Amino acid sequence: MALQIMADKDIGFLVVLEKGAMVGVLSERDCARRVVLGKRLPDQTPVADIMVRDIVSVDLSHTFADCLRLMHQHRIRHLPVSDGGKVIAVISIRDLLSEAVAHHAKIIGELERERLTIFTSTA
What's the structural domain count of the chain? Predict the structure, then answer.
């Protein structure tokens, strides 16, 4: 069922909630390793048996650098974000990379404009 949800929504990560509280996370990689390599039947394996219970997550006070550091430290690709104990989003390493690229492109553009201004003002 979890793999079907991921396939239907074209995502690779689920947050598992119980009565609104985050109790685990499950990735396609978890499914591949714990179900396929464990020779379990996907339709007969409860999510509770294969999900990761030791959840690494952040709240809105965490910075971009905090998120990147946590993902690197724990070797994870997805990071649930909560606000007041409620999960509101999931950040992926791809999201962080995209943001870093956009930020650096902006800085490079500003430096190029500054250089052109200096170059044209001295000519």
Answer: 1
